Write the structure tokens for this entry.
Amino acid sequence: MASPMHRMSTTDRSRWFSAAAILSLWLVLIGCGPSGRDLSDAQWLQLQSDLQRERTEVGRQRDQLEADRRQWDERERREPVLAATIDSSVRLLCCIAPVLVVVLLLWPRQAETPSEVACDVLLDELIVQRDPGKLESSRANSPAYTSHKRLV
């Protein structure tokens, strides 16, 4: 099988080679843009310092991300423990509250001493001398009066 170049005539081949040569020469002369050889020392230094600043910034951001990740990991470990502790404490208080109420209701109270009863009786007599109607309403509810009635 013959290649496409073998089928071409000599003039066509020479035109094709000349077009390829001109294109190659044109690409070599124009190039792909500024190469490293075209940059001055100041431009190289500027590019290197810019690159170093960007590396520093990327490193700082990476460190910040790592610190945030550690903080979230710590929070994920700590918060369930804290929630369980609060839940247990509240349940314990709810269980103890009725027991405390019963203990307070059944706790023996101190009886009034005779000197307190005597003071209450003297105050009642003083009130009777000033306003007899006022004492009758307060006597019905007064524990001192009922204990005084038992003593008399």
